Each structure stands twice: as C-alpha cells, then as structure tokens.
Sequence to fold (241 residues):
Amino acid sequence: MDNLVLIVTALPEERKAILRRAQDLRHDPTTDAQASIGDAMVAIAATGDGAWAAESRAGELCDALRPVALVGAGVAGALSPGLSVGDLVVGRRILDSRGEAPAPDGGFVDRAVRVGAVAGTLLTLERPAVARSEKAALAESLGGEGPGTVDMESAGWARAAAARRIPYLVVRSISDAADEELPAYLARCIGADGRMRRAAVLGYSLVRPGTLPALLRLRKRTQACGDRLAGFLERFFTATP
Fold:
C-alpha cells in the first residue's frame, strides 16, 4: 500500500460518483475500494455523515491503510453569496465548535486552486444550516476571509489526518446557494450519534409533501456535485494539470 492516497466522502452517493470515474480510468479495478485516479493509487471510502463519524472512521482508515495523504471530498452549503451550485471550494481554513482545525497542506491547497477550486473557509456544524438568515449570520461570523461553506464532516477528517501527521486536503462542491432555503426539519433529523436519520427525513417529507421537490433537487445536485468532484480529483492527481 506504499504511496496510497485515501479519499474520504461522507455519503455513499459521493463515493460512488468518484469511484465511477476511477473505474473508467483504470477499466478493471482489483477491488471496489481501490483504484487509480490520474497518476495516484487511491482508496475511496465513505465515513458516514456527521463530525464524530467522519473523524472516527477516517482515523480507523488511516491506521489501517497508512496513506501518504488524505483527501476529503463532498458537498457543502454556500455561506457566501458569490458561490453558485457546483462551484468547488478547497479549505484553506477549517473550523468547528472546537475552533480552528490544524491547517491543510499548503502545497495541496495551491495545487487545488490551479486545477479549478477557489480557496476559502469550511465551517463544520453539528446540524445543517437550512435558513437564509442562519447562513447569513454564519457568513458574518467568518469575518469575510474568502468564500465560506458549511458542512458536517470537514473538521472531523482534518483532525483525524492531523493527529496522525498525514498531510490532507478537503474540497467541497456547492449543493445549495447562500440565499436558498432548505426544509427546516432537516436540522431536526440529526440523531444522537450526529448523523442524519434518513428515515426521519422521509417521515417528515411524507407529511410535508410540499418539501419533496427541494429534497429531490438536493439529491440530483449531490449526484452532479459528485461528478464535479471526480473531475477535480482527476485533474488534481495528474502530474501536469
């Protein structure tokens, strides 16, 4: 497993999009989890959503695989009005309720910018930000240092890698704009383990059918964002981007 890069996502849908691209590149991957992207041999895994699951599972994978680097990839909500759906944001700063996570590898960040991402701040929360007013307040709290996004895993991945002195990078594709309202009940569907309870989301949507278009739109965007992330990773891991 020398020179193996670990790519982690939160959701299986994100992982599948990246794995599809990896399979296309390698044509005949030896396993479902390992493949090549660009010039890199990678292992691709979903840690589950939520900061606790992200940090715990990423740590286990790092201990088992001993990768030379970790790359976190997934969707995020925009906090900055200038970000559009599908845009790619690489974390130069990563924050959560504990403060600022150890910094990502500066060379990785610079390379990510060269191949199509914009550098910004990734804010990890325990619950999704669903209201325009909440997103605006969070954006203001970041102090305007570049574009800001919100998710539930980035800091967990960052802390797991940093604790093992593994250089890392986290890149996000925007799934919902800063002025876009999401169903309010999503914030109430987080379980005690910090993960989204999909059965609860389904239950709420059935009694609030007017929210179904928004959920279906998010699902479609997640798939599209996964494809965008896969293309970014191909460029990132190519020797001459």
About this structure: Strands lie at 4-9, 34-37, 40-46, 69-78, 88-96, 99-100, 118-124, 148-151, 168-176. The two ends are 25 Å apart (CA to CA).
